[in-house]
């Protein structure tokens, strides 16, 4: 089964979630996770993103950095710049949207358009 893996540049847990929310409010330009900036407000998921996610035909999984490293650990490790969106199929992980592409995005609509476009090309 093919799916997209959205890997946040943030760690899991309620403590980290609260700190991330506060950092986004106090110093939004220094916040390190562009996926979070695009898809979440200070404390909750943006409605447009939630609607897109729920209505999409592609399976998506969202992992914090520590969760990804634990779930996809290998003896070679994965050397990516985070955040990143990966495409997973039965055999491998491929870059779907690079860190550089994410960092250049100005708004959520750009992310949604790119995901839709690339999904059409893959499927």
In one word, what is the shape? globular
Number of domains: 1
Strand content: 15-25%
The count of β-strands is: 4
Number of helices: 6
Classify the helix fraction into a percent range. Answer: 40-55%
Terminal Cα separation, in Å?
Answer: 12 Å
Which stretches are low in confidence, meaning pLDDT under 50 for 5 or more residues running?
none
Order of helices and strands: EHHHEHEEHH
Mind describing the biggest β-sheet? 4 strands, mixed
The mean pLDDT is 88
Strand adjacency order, main sheet: 2-1-3-4
Which structural class matches the secondary elements? alpha+beta
Tell me the Rg in angstroms.
Answer: 14 Å
Task: Give the topology, please.
Layout: E1 3-7, H1 14-26, H2 34-39, H3 47-55, E2 59-63, H4 65-71, E3 84-88, E4 93-97, H5 99-104, H6 108-122
Parallel strand pairs: 1-2
Antiparallel strand pairs: 1-3, 3-4
Q: What would your notes on this structure say?
A:
- There is one protein chain.
- By secondary structure, the protein is an alpha+beta fold.
- It has one domain (3-122).
- It is 46% helix and 16% strand.
- The protein has 6 helices and 4 strands; from the N terminus they run βαααβαββαα.
- It has helices at residues 14-26, 34-39, 47-55, 65-71, 99-104, 108-122, and strands at 3-7, 59-63, 84-88, 93-97.
- It has a 4-stranded mixed sheet with strand order 2-1-3-4.
- The longest helix is centred in the last third of the chain and has 15 residues, at 108-122.
- It is globular.
- The mean pLDDT is 88.
